[in-house]
Amino acid sequence: MILTGVLLAVVGLGLVGWFAARGRARLLYTGRGSMHSMPSYHGWHMALWIIVPALLAWMAWSFMMPGLVDGAVLASPAAAQFPPDAMSRAAILSEARTVASNPNAAVFNPLSATLAEPMRAAQQRFGLIGGLIVLIVALAGGGYGLTRVRAGFPARTQVERAVLGVLLLASLMAILTTFGIVASLLFEAGLFFKDVSPIAFLTGTHWAPGNAGGENISDNFGAVPLFWGTIYIGAIIAMLVAIPLGLMSAIYLTQYASSKVRKLLKPMLEILAGIPTVVYGYFAALSVAPMMRDFAASIGMANPSTESALAAGMVMGVMIIPFVSSMADDSLAAVPRAMSDGSLALGATRSETIKRVLLPAALPGIVAGVMLAISRAIGETMIVVMAAGAAARLSLNPFDSMTTVTYQIVQLLTGDQEFNSPKTLSAFALGLVLFIVTLILNIIALRVVKRFREAYE
Amino acid sequence: MTETKITARNVDVFYGQKQAIDNVSIDIDDGMVTAFIGPSGCGKSTFLRSLNRMNDTIADARVTGEIRLDGEDVYAASMDPVALRARVGMVFQKPNPFPKSIFENIAYGPRIHGLVQNKTDLDEVVEKSLVKAGLWEEVKDRLHDAGTALSGGQQQRLCIARAIAVSPEVILMDEPCSALDPIATARIEELIDELKDNFAIVIVTHSMQQAARVSQRTAFFHLGNLVEYGETSQVFTAPRNEKTKDYITGRYG
Amino acid sequence: MSNAVWQTPEAVRRLAKRHAAERRFRLLGLSAIVLSLAFLALLLVIMLENGLGGLDWQFLTGSDSTNADLAGVWGAAKGSLLTMLVTLVLSFPMGVLSAVYLEEFAPRARWIEWIEVSINNLAAVPSIIFGLLGLAVFINTLGMPRSSPLVGGLTLALMTMPVIVISGRNAIKAVPPSIRDAALAVGASKVQTVFHHVVPLALPGILTGTIIGMARALGETAPLLMIGMRAFVVTPPGGITDPSSVLPMQIFLWSDEIDKAFVQNTSAAIIVLLVFLLAMNGLAIYLRNKFEVRW
Predict the structure, then answer these.
(1) Which residues form the ABC transmembrane type-1 domain (chain A) (predicted)?
(2) Could you report the predicted ipTM of this complex, rounded to two decimals?
């Protein structure tokens, strides 16, 4: 709380510094060419010297403070009867933290209520210390900045250098995120593979994380049925819907439709891509799945389930249509007009030209598009969570309920969970597999697309 | 003994609002090469593309007037552009072989038109076309290599062979040598000279020397109008029109 | 030879067959597009049919409840609003600055390529993976409050940033070099050129990309499921650290209710969500048409 106030104060100081430095710089102005930089750059230079070091100090302190507070609380007499194991300690401390900021919060462990008071006191004390440090840093930075306001001082160059630094930092976020994903997946999956053999995980056919435990733990983490369900729903059923519909739509739009019709239909098709997956999931569960079940019953299947691979896959396919269509559109457009002209001039009809010249020429691009579409389909979560089901089975019957990697990740990480149990950790192992597979698909597809584009340039 | 292959009467071509060809009438004879010359943008290519209805593929192009092939109205409702284009072949400015093998490039036309019944016939057509296009000796050992792997001049001869394979009556050539080097150009010009006995050939060219070398008739287009049309020797040595004379003597162009 | 070849009965039959195939193919294309759009129409009609009746004042201003009649979307909508706010505040500056750097200042170096590859891949990583990242890093490592718009916004910001960077780069690329030359020629520094001239000109394009990215984030459910934003929230969240839910999550939670009365709520919430998305996309299209300059 105090720290937030201090932050505002620092920003205020920065503002004051900006005006002060600019004012001083203006006084220095004696005529054309007398100064290196415009007064406002001196202002910015000053403001940066106030805010940046103070911000760094603030961040460092915010990072350290919880530890200092917890230490102080644990040292307080109220914590004498604290349970020794780390897990429940952390739980109680975090509960005390909640109570300290919100006295009305519900309490599960009575101990945390008694700790709330020392907690609040410690937070106050360390908050004050931190605030003081931050303010001192800000003032020191400002003092230094003020001495720099001189006629010859290259304030603009300095400020621009800082701007470039900020730009660079922003760009590094992407790498940091990628690194964060890889590191967290590898780390958690690593913990999982300490208990479960990776080979059993990748080749086993029995998936029952619920009754895992004891000696034969690996036997319950065979992920093959999950992989199969994912491939069957995302790469087979969904693609059987999306590829013909998407490709034919693209062909119609690019080769047959007049530009007026195209301008009308294309955005409408793209609406399909903008509908949230949860809506598709609900639609699949509410309308498509019962339809499939009734259909299965009508063709004589006994006890068809409400959740079916077919319903989930079909709806997923519809979702992917605009994606396939726009990739195919791009690929067809990349084939030079001379190709179709050459074919038409020989007396080929439009469709002969499309089937025999355009599509073969655009094939690499289309295949890459399908790979990207598959990568998107197998990572799709909500539709399968809502319509595919939980049963891990290796089945070829599309009316069966089937489960997927993403479904299991959701299943394993929601609801009551204890972190660091093999059950929850297996979700990260599944996530790692999903990440690697989609990454490979994407990299190959992007490379194919790039080479394809270059071929016609 | 020469007979008229194509007659055009009062032909106008529009692209949207813009008129590209204005009231052109011309007779094109069989068994010889007719050259269309003129400064760029004069409409010579546009007129060429209206002879086999390739202008149909451009969304807002419109052709009025009358074009007849052997007396049949090319733009009549009963005329099938597919059959028309099989009878009036075309070779483009830039060689545009399909991304398929040399063999498949040639076989494409005969196959879609059902001109051959079996593999032996097809092989024969492919060989004959390549021989006529003067490419056979160079590619006979690599018929199944990609057509795009050939040199520019070879690619253009492949495209000519591709057109010949459908046994058209007329071959339209739209600046067929503009993307080629002088040696490849000379080779194509020779080929055109050989082909003229079997086909009516219409060639658009921006090179007057080329027109003088390969053609028997020359038509000079300017700003969408047909300014002068006659025997090539006459057009180049004794032009009747001032504009033609200015163009030929290089005063503009 | 002449056209006699083409007028034999056999040739005529063959031509007719080819033209029939042509018509069939064309019809196939048209039906593909009609079928896709019919599916869209069916989805919308079913949602409207089920949900329109449930859209009343009580529904729009209420929060979640176990009683279908009392339940409303405001709590979730406010959660969405707070989450989007966090997402926007983080991803927009980050994305724009990153795009500016990569397009205008970045040296041609190996590590710059890594950044580009990272961005392209992040744009295609399944959203649920971002949820795993959020769970592992923000909640388990940094100890941020579970189920809060803060963590949800952070997670979605990481997901949205690549979208903004990519569209931002395209918008910046579209500004012609002559503008840069003009500014540099009157003595502006490179930084001044970029921030005074290039970025303002690219802004409509950047904003369009940002809105599209935000619309996608608004409809996202899976990553938020990972960080526990499925709290049963009876009172709207007061701040970005309170437990909360978001609109798509509310849809998901209601869709799971056994009570049939929630079907209406779910569909009505879907209508609300789609209206928001429609408005955002409409704004993006408007911006693009109004401000897009063709060079």
Answers:
(1) 228-445
(2) 0.91
